[in-house]
Amino acid sequence: MYAESPALNASVLLLNRLYMAVRVVNAKRALTLLYRNLCEVVHVEEGQFLSYDFSDWVEVSQAKAAFEPERYEWIHTVRFQVAVPKVIRLLGYDRLPRVDVKLNRRNLFARDHSTCQYCGKRYPTSELSVDHVVPRSQGGRTSWENVVCACVRCNVRKGGRTPEQAHIHLISKPRRPRRSPVLTIKLSESKYASWKQFVDFAYWNVELK
């Protein structure tokens, strides 16, 4: 249907039939669902929700391309170009979204803003490690409340000790986030502003996939 493009990895918010946020999918998945008539585009314009199926969205995309192309990422096909939608709604799925946030490196680094929780310096994620505040050798669990980002230097300095034993201090107490930290970062970007009302409605949580 469309050639491979970096825009196919753009983020799209997926809603269930009841307009509750379920997860974030990439544009390739979103357009596939739309093309198969399993979902519709939900477009927020001047405070109103407008719904479009695939063919209608292709037509709307032509107008967007002419008047506001900078607001969208674009998928180009042999016959037309289509704007990557910001929000789509499944037509036959009304289950509630999950209320927990997965503990993985991506979410952990986002929660801690890629900042070492001991020295307070920000690093590229490739230079960060996951540290157990209470080491596993001392009974510490792998949980949101016991893992933090740490730079290699601080992690080595701390070793298999607690911060108190190593005479270093946490800059903030690790907590379980109420919603996906990665999503929180995305919501700070203007191009994802239309997500906020749906995410607030979805118990403050969206699962990223």
Characterise the protein shown here.
The chain has seven helices and ten strands. The chain has 209 residues and is α+β, with helices and mostly antiparallel strands. The chain has two domains: 6-98 and 180-208, no CATH class; 105-166, DNA Binding (I), subunit A. A six-stranded mixed β-sheet has the order 4-3-7-1-2-10. Strands 5-6 form a two-stranded antiparallel sheet.
Describe the structure concisely for a colleague:
The protein is α+β, with helices and mostly antiparallel strands and 209 residues long.
Key features?
209 residues; alpha+beta; DNA Binding (I), subunit A; 2 domains; 6-stranded mixed beta sheet; 7 helices; elongated
Unreliable segments (pLDDT under 50, ≥5 consecutive)?
Answer: 202-209
Largest sheet: 6 strands, mixed
Number of structural domains: 2
Distance N to C terminus: 23 Å
Mean pLDDT: 85
Strand elements, count:
10
Overall body shape = elongated
Task: Kindly report the spatial arrangement of strands forming the biggest sheet.
Answer: 4-3-7-1-2-10
Structural class: alpha+beta
- DSSP helix fraction: 25-40%
What's the gyration radius in Å? Answer: 21 Å
The count of helical stretches stands at 7
The H-and-E topology, N to C, reads as EEHEEHEEEHEEHHHHE
Strand content: 15-25%
